[in-house]
Amino acid sequence: MAIDGLTGFKGKVALVVGGSSGMGNAVVRLLAAGGVSTHVLDIQPTTDGQFQACDVRDYNQVRRCVERIFAKEERIDLLFIAAGVHLFATI
Q1: How far is CA 82 from CA 4, 24, 72, 79, 91, in A?
Q2: Staple partner for 13: which of 21, 25, 61, 73, CB 3.0–4.6 Å?
Q3: In the prediction, which pLDDT does 1 show?
């Protein structure tokens, strides 16, 4: 199923960092529905896209995950970063 505005992305390879929930997960679902091979790096598992557990604060983990994507796809066309750390503290 092609989604209006995404037809030009069909067949592309996307990496969504922080794609297990919230805005990142919405992007994963939208891209996948538009025919994009979508890879997700996150610390929380998801069944959307092609998930790899990865703590993006650790350079070596990120490097290994990106190398796996390149080994499979030979490229990354789109990058979407939605990862964040929430710090809560009392005043």
Answers
A1: 23, 5, 23, 10, 27
A2: 73
A3: 45
- Of 19, 53, 52, 50, nearest to 36 by C-alpha is 50
**What token pair was written down for 90?**
């009392």
Name the DSSP class of 46.
-
Q: Low-confidence residues of the chain, pLDDT below 50?
A: 1-2
Q: Look-up: residue for tokens 């970063």?
A: 81
- DSSP one-letter code for 80: E
Residue 35, C-beta contacts closer than 8 angstroms, at least 6 positions apart: 2, 6, 9, 10, 11
Residues 6+ apart with CB under 8 A from 86: none
Please tell me the distance from the alpha carbon of residue 69 to that of residue 78, in angstroms, as a whole number: 12
Q: Tell me, what amino acid is at 11? A: G
Q: How many CB atoms lie within 10 A of CB 42?
A: 24
| Other beta carbons within 10 Å of 80 | 18
With contact defined as beta carbons under 8 Å apart, do 48 and 16 qualify?
no
